[in-house]
Amino acid sequence: MRKYLGILLFGLGILMTGCNPDPPPTPVDPGNSPSQAVGGCYVVNEGGFNYGNAMVGFWQKATGTYKTDLFRQANQRALGDVLQHMYIRGDTAMLVLNNSGRIELVDVEDFRSLGAIVGLVSPRYIQPLAGTKAYVTDLYSQGVTIVDLATRQRTGKIPLPGWTEELAYTQGKVYVTNRYADYLYVIDPAVDRVIDSLLIGYGGGAIEIDKTGQLWVFGAGDPLAGKSGGIYRVNPQNREVRSFIFPANADVFPRLAMNAAKDTLYYLQGGVYALPITANALPTQPLIPAQRRTFYGLAVNPANSHIFVTDAKDYLQRGDLWEYTPQGEPLQSIQVGIIPNDVIFY
Questions:
Q1: At a CB cut-off of 8 Å and minimum separation 6, what does 224 contact?
Q2: What pLDDT was estimated at residue 61?
Q3: Residue 6 CB: number of other CB atoms within 10 A?
Q4: Predicted local distance difference test score (pLDDT) of residue 62
Q5: Among 33, 95, 188, 259, who pairs with 109 as Cys (CB 3.0-4.6 Å)?
Q6: pTM (two decimals)
Q7: What is the pLDDT of residue 33?
Q8: Which residues contact 158 (CB under 8 A, 6 or more apart)?
Q9: What's the Rg (C-alpha) of the chain?
Q10: Exposed (0-12), middle (13-18) or buried (19+): which is 70, by Cβ within 10 Å?
Q11: In degrees, to the nearest 5, what angle opens at C-alpha 344 toward C-alphas 341 and 346?
């Protein structure tokens, strides 16, 4: 029997394929290079499962406009199916397309395609390393794939069980979460090998690094197996783990974000909660209540620590993006694409 999370995601896939989602919004001319806009951000929209309508948009806050489907405008073709992750390094944006099994690389200035890494099974997140090497996690491939960003080729694989998810690269090591395990895995990129595994809690997903170098992992748990979800603080120096266990079932889509000073962790648990890194217990009240919205994506602007939260609504129609102050006061919102899952600042 599949674990609780797998069952839920499978059911969600059936819902999306069995219902006709609203058609994607009509693309508009992106005009000038979006990355040159002042006070804006990219919005990562997954799109409906099996509908091939994933897209990246840009909220140009200075003018209050939302430029949709930058990739289609630049390349005259659809981006692909289920945009899971976007990573920017230098002048290149890497767009991880989960259900399409590929990573599209684009020029961040004009979003024109630079090529793609293909032949992946079900990629989730990418972490560039030194030189042109990068690691890619995967839902089904039982490991982490090694890719060369220059040649756009797969060059190897690091075996790991289950569903590998987010990555953090710090102090010369790569830390990998796993949605079907109780461990945080440690990889030495010098030899492309797992060198350690740290017992945390079941269902590790999102991971962040605070100002002291400690790692924070959101574990979804498994209610059917009696495994509680929680947040885990990991000291990579002495391997010490501090657990913050949720009093109720964890959010099935783990999301974490650090403020600009990296001394406060935000997480989704229905609403948005704020956890100082020096805290000894979880907060009892949300900083930003969900108020019947389906909060799905979470990010913090590194320039001013404003909190950005996406509302996926029913996962079929276009969602919303909300901006809040660090104190949780609402500033503004805008309609974006279907299933917005992240916000990227550049």
A1: 3, 4
A2: 83
A3: 15
A4: 80
A5: 33
A6: 0.89
A7: 52
A8: 135, 143, 144, 146, 187, 192, 193, 194
A9: 19
A10: buried
A11: 170
Whole-number pLDDT of residue 93: 98
Structure-block tokens of residue 88: 């920017």
Q: String of b and e for 307-333 (b: at least 16 CB within 10 Å)? A: bbbbbbbebbebbbbbbbebeeeeeee
Round to whole Å and give the CA distance between 218 and 184: 11
As a whole number of angstroms, the distance between CA 32 and CA 11 comes to 41
Q: Spell out, as residue ranges, where the chain has pLDDT lower than 70.
A: 1-39
Give me the count of residues in the chain: 346
Q: What is the pLDDT of residues 8-66, one digit of tens each?
A: 443 444 333 333 333 333 333 334 455 444 468 999 999 999 999 999 999 998 888 99
Secondary structure in 3-state letters for the chain = CCCHHHHHHHHHHHHHHHCCCCCCCCCCCCCCCHHHCCCEEEEEECCCCCCCCCEEEEEECCCCEEECCHHHHHHCCCCCCCEEEEEEECCEEEEEECCCCEEEEEECCCCCEEEEECCCCCEEEEEECCCCEEEEEECCCCEEEEEECCCCEEEEEEECCCCEEEEEEECCEEEEEECCCCEEEEEECCCCEEEEEEECCCCEEEEEECCCCCEEEEECCEHHHCECCEEEEECCCCCCEEEEECCCCCCCCCCEEECCCCCEEEEEECEEEEEECCCCCCCCCCCECCCCCCEEEEEECCCCCCEEEEECCCCCCEEEEEEECCCCCEEEEEEEEECEEEEECC
What whole-number distance in Å separates Cα of residue 53 and Cα of residue 31?
21
287: Cα separation from own chain's centroid: 21
What pLDDT score does 34 carry?
54
Strand arrangement of the beta sheet that strand 307-311 belongs to: 295-300, 307-311, 318-324, 330-338
Q: Cβ(306)–Cβ(300) under 8 Å?
A: yes
Q: Which among 299, 302, 301 has a CA at the least distance from the CA of 310?
A: 299
